[in-house]
What we know:
Blueprint: E1 8-13, H1 20-36, E2 39-44, H2 47-53, E3 63-66, E4 69-73, E5 86-90, H3 97-105, E6 111-115, H4 123-127, E7 131-133, E8 140-144, H5 161-170, H6 172-181, E9 192-196, H7 204-213, E10 218-223, H8 228-235, E11 244-247, E12 250-255, H9 260-269, E13 272-276, H10 279-286, E14 291-294, H11 302-314, H12 320-335, H13 341-349, H14 351-365, H15 371-382
Parallel strand pairs: 1-2, 1-5, 2-4, 5-6, 6-8, 9-10, 9-13, 10-12, 13-14
Antiparallel strand pairs: 3-4, 7-8, 11-12
Helix pairs in contact: 7-8, 7-13, 12-13
Bound molecules: 2'-deoxy-thymidine-beta-L-rhamnose.
Amino acid sequence: MSSFATCRxxxxxxxIDNFGDIGVCWRLARQIVREHGMSVRLWVxxxxxxxxxxxxxxxxxxxxxxxxxxxxxxxxxxSAVIPGNIVxxxxxxxxxxHYVENMARLDSPPAWINLEYLSAEAWVSGCHALPSPHPRLxxxxxxxxxxxxxxxxxxxxxxxxxEARRLFLASEDLQTSFWHRIxxxxxxxxxxxxxLFAYENEALPSVLSALADSPIPTCCLAPLSxxxxxxxxxxxQSIAVGDSIRRGGLEIRILPFVTxxxxxxxxxxxxxxxxxxxxxxxxxxxxxxxMIWHIYPQSEEAHRVKLDAFLERYLADxxxxxxxxxxxxxxxxxxxxxxxxxxxxxVLQQLxxxxxxxxxWEKNLSKQEDLCASLVRFCKSKL
Length: 383
Ligand code: TRH
């Protein structure tokens, strides 16, 4: 049995596309260092993508330390690398062969985890923590599933997250310096603040048009990303970071892609958040604000089942009429169907109700053990 205080953890991450894989791994790596005092090496195959969410990362540097995490460029054959006692392969990425062989040569085998993607589907709890023995070597890998109930590995949530959000929302100064840091003036006090992060979405022009026509003033804060074409198509002009463009009651502000921590603050500051994928989707839930999720599209429509499974849980305690409105906008958003002005009016009118629901959801969800604590506890039991 290894001494847990001297545990070393290796996290392996391949960036498939977008920022979710590295986003989750970076969050987890920092939390293991900060809250569990272990040393962590994060092996990443794409430092450019990493540098987008963490500008302190130098994409030309093969080995560097940021926020206490050793960040290593995933290259070479790994024959000289001594594995950590905890090995996390994120999202089924294939570990280097030599590294796996070195794992088998350690005096005691490491706790080997395959961290899976998040899904609210019921089968997840039955597969969480299942072992998968290596066909040849004396090693066992365990499947670790994030999820929404106690029978899963939970969700990533830093210890001081709720407190940090409360402090931010209670402090004008913190909010003002946040807006300045990301290069924006604070949005008008009377406008509803809406953050926008999504994949390419043909429904986007209709959403913006419905907001522009609404009597409720809105300010849409959009970090420049894959929504660019949809915003440009609505505006009929090209956009760049720093732009602030008005149409009717809607002001659209184009933000830079901000750091992960500032992205959290953006979610906290807004009244409605459009989010996507996995990590921003989870962070919007911790923001305790209404959200509309653009799920990562998968082949053969596999994402539909996941979307429905989540909505079933998320909307379970919401009055039927309000739940239907959220479901309708989420459905239109994910099916690329037009959002009618009537649907948008209904959404905006119901926002106070949605907010209560989002607050309750966050309160209940945060009673669960967080994923990092649950993962560390699980690994400890295997060492
Ligand atoms: O980038 P994504 O679409 O990632 C996706 C999903 O994770 C999906 O499950 C996976 O299969 C696919 O990648 C390969 O969306 P996600 O998960 O929300 O990740 C975005 C990250 O970017 C998240 O950590 C928040 C961060 N972010 C910033 O740091 N700054 C920003 O300005 C914005 C908008 C996001």
